[in-house]
Design brief:
Radius of gyration: 17 Å
Helix content: 55-70%
Shape: globular
Strand content: under 5%
Number of strands: 0
Distance between the termini: 39 Å
Order of helices and strands: HHHHHHHHHHH
Structural class: mainly alpha
């Protein structure tokens, strides 16, 4: 049986501002639950309501938990661009749906020089996956719309597409590429990059 997709990425984008705050709490406690509690209780993410603080801290933590200690440290010390790429990787690890879209649509388009990413590309991907993932048909159209909206927002925040939805080549630092490649080269396939690009990063 096909593993069900997690589909809870309806708000928040990549959390570029929030993620480092949560990482610092985690590194001081060594415990995700304690980190999340501190973030929520002290309103470190500066959100307006307790409900939003709970929702956002839970979502950020769930993504960051996919990173190991070296990657978390890198998140605090890297350039803004590498931070965004790391958070994109964390999102792809957390959400197989997004990882599949990144490798099967975003990167494939890039490889065949189709640089425009359209909502139609997303809808085609979604419909194709729904044949194997009934959970995609079970969610209401407003939620489907939010998923698409937020995925494209994350792609823009990671600078993987422009405001006009043109696919932009990933420009990972060699350090980040080698850091991710410890888990296997497949980790780099969520980026618009050729095999030659990946080999160059890893030299």
């Amino acid at each position: 049986m096909t593993e069900r997709y997690r589909l809870s990425f309806t708000t928040g984008g990549l959390f570029l501002r929030e993620a480092p705050v949560v990482v610092e709490c985690y590194l001081s406690h060594g415990d995700w639950t304690k980190a999340r509690d501190q973030v929520r209780q002290e309103n470190l993410l500066q959100v307006r309501t307790a409900a939003a603080a709970t929702r956002i801290s839970k979502e950020v933590t769930a993504r960051l938990e996919t990173l190991d200690s070296i990657e978390l440290q890198a998140l605090l010390e890297s350039s803004l661009r590498d931070q965004a790429y790391l958070l994109w990787v964390a999102t792809c690890r957390r959400y197989t749906f997004i990882r599949d879209f990144a490798t099967e649509v975003l990167r494939e388009h890039y490889l065949i020089l189709r640089r425009q990413l359209t909502f139609g590309d997303y809808e085609g991907f979604y419909s194709g996956k729904a044949l194997w993932h009934p959970e995609l048909d079970e969610i209401v159209s407003s939620t489907q719309h939010k998923l698409r909206q937020n995925l494209f927002r994350m792609l823009r925040e990671a600078d993987l597409i422009s405001e006009q939805q043109q696919i932009q080549p990933a420009l990972l630092s060699p350090y980040l590429a080698q850091l991710l490649a410890r888990q296997g080269k497949h980790e780099l396939l969520v980026f618009p990059a050729t095999d030659n690009d990946i080999q160059r990063w890893l030299q």
